Structure formats: structure tokens, C-alpha cells
């Protein structure tokens, strides 16, 4: 979306022509399935505004809504992190399109409720959720580290386990510091996420 604004009219038309030829949606991300069934799902508030983070109560409530909806269709939720303007989930889902549709319903419901709460009827709250299929074991563990570390990456806390809207503390308690540290060193985040948003976000 943000790149779209920088394109000329001719570039926009060329891009739409390619998307139409390939049978991809014109103005939203194409969704792809993976044999591994492992995905990182990312969704951001429109314009990256901190609408989720309007209050800690809202963030906590949204975290529960997100997890409840995800548990209906994801066989495993390995990691999650909810921040004031976006969230990440690392999941195993046999039907990722169904999961994305279910998350879309959560987005619709929360948009309506939050806009009423904030006296901003008609405000666009969400942009589309985007899934990234895990390509390898290294990709999975680097993504795990990225999701769990996301609140640190964005400067909200200094330690993973201090962010209350993720499973970082539970992860560390479950695997122990030694295992977590070995995974961090073996599968470093490095530039994963630097100046990055999924291309269609």
C-alpha cells in the first residue's frame, strides 16, 4: 500500500495488469499455501497507527480475541506478539486461508467496537493480514526469535519476558534460558525485520 502511493499512474496500471494476468487480487495480498503448514501471520493497523494500543485493557482483550480465533483453526500456535499497532503469530495451520478469513472477522468486529469506543465511526482500523510460509528449519526458528523479540525490536521493553502481550515469558519458562539462548545464537534475527513490512502491507 505504501509503495503504491509512490508509483506513477503508468506504473500502477502496469502492476494491475500483471496481477490481473496472474489471477491475483488487484488491491490485496495474494495468499499462498505451504506443504509445511507453518506460517508467520502479520497484520498491522492502517497507517501503522497505534489503535490496538489505545489502552492496556484493549491490548489484553485483543490478545485473547486473537488467540481464541486462532485456536479454532491453527493446530499449533508457537509464538505471538501483540504490539500497539500490529501483531505477529507463528502457527501451524492446514488451511491458512480459513484462518485468515477468521482473523478478518476479528478485525471487522474489533474495528466496529473500537471505532465506537473512540468516537471515530468510519475510520479504517486494519490493513490486510499477510502470511509468510516457513521455508526451512532455519526460517522457522529465526521467525520464532523475531516474533518473541518484537517488543524489544520496537523499543517497548528491554527483555522479551517483560512484554505482557506475547508468549515470550511462557516460552522461556518452558524451554529454559540455555535452550532459548542456543536457539537465539544458532538462528539469529540479524536483519530480519529491518526496514521490513510484508510487501503487501
Per-chain topology:
Layout: H1 2-6, H2 9-21, E1 38-44, H3 56-73, E2 76-82, E3 86-92, H4 96-117, E4 130-133, H5 137-148, H6 150-153, H7 168-175, H8 177-186
Antiparallel strand pairs: 1-3, 1-4, 2-3
Instruction: Give the distance, in angstroms, between the N- and C-terminal Cα atoms.
Output: 6 Å
Strand order of the largest sheet: 2-3-1-4
Count of alpha and pi helical runs: 8
Shape: globular
- Would you tell me the structural class of the helices and strands? alpha+beta
Average pLDDT, to the nearest integer?
Answer: 86
Beta percentage is 5-15%
Rg of Cα set: 17 Å
Q: What is the number of strand segments?
A: 4
Query: Roughly how much helix do the residues carry, as a percent range?
Result: 40-55%
Poorly predicted regions: 195-201
Instruction: Characterize the biggest β-sheet.
Output: 4 strands, antiparallel
Order of helices and strands: HHEHEEHEHHHH
What does this structure look like?
This protein is of the alpha+beta class and 201 residues long. 46% of the residues lie in helices and 12% in strands. The protein is built from 8 helices and 4 strands; from the N terminus they run ααβαββαβαααα. The chain has helices at residues 2-6, 9-21, 56-73, 96-117, 137-148, 150-153, 168-175, 177-186, and strands spanning 38-44, 76-82, 86-92, 130-133. A 4-stranded antiparallel sheet has the order 2-3-1-4, sandwiched between helices. 29% of the residues are buried.
Concise overview:
By secondary structure, this protein is α+β, with helices and mostly antiparallel strands.
Describe this protein with a few key phrases.
single chain; 201 residues; four-stranded antiparallel beta sheet; 8 helices
Amino acid at each position: 500500500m505504501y509503495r503504491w502511493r509512490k508509483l506513477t499512474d503508468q506504473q500502477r496500471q502496469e502492476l494491475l495488469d500483471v496481477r490481473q494476468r496472474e489471477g491475483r487480487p488487484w488491491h490485496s495480498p495474494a495468499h499462498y499455501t505451504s506443504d509445511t503448514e507453518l506460517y508467520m501471520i502479520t497484520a498491522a493497523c492502517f497507517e501503522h497507527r497505534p489503535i490496538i494500543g489505545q489502552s492496556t485493557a484493549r491490548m489484553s482483550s485483543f490478545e485473547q480475541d486473537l488467540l481464541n480465533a486462532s485456536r479454532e483453526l491453527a493446530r499449533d500456535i508457537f509464538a505471538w506478539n501483540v504490539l500497539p499497532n500490529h501483531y505477529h503469530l507463528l502457527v501451524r495451520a492446514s488451511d491458512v486461508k480459513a484462518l485468515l478469513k477468521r482473523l478478518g472477522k476479528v478485525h471487522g468486529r474489533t474495528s466496529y467496537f473500537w471505532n465506537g469506543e473512540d468516537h471515530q465511526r468510519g475510520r479504517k482500523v486494519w490493513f490486510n493480514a499477510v502470511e509468510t510460509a516457513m521455508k526451512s528449519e532455519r526460517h522457522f526458528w529465526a521467525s520464532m526469535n523475531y516474533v518473541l523479540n518484537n517488543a524489544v525490536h520496537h523499543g517497548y521493553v528491554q527483555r522479551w519476558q517483560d512484554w505482557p502481550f506475547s508468549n515470550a515469558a511462557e516460552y522461556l519458562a518452558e524451554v529454559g534460558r540455555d535452550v532459548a539462548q542456543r536457539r537465539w545464537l544458532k538462528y539469529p534475527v540479524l536483519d530480519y525485520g529491518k526496514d521490513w513490512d510484508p510487501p503487501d502491507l
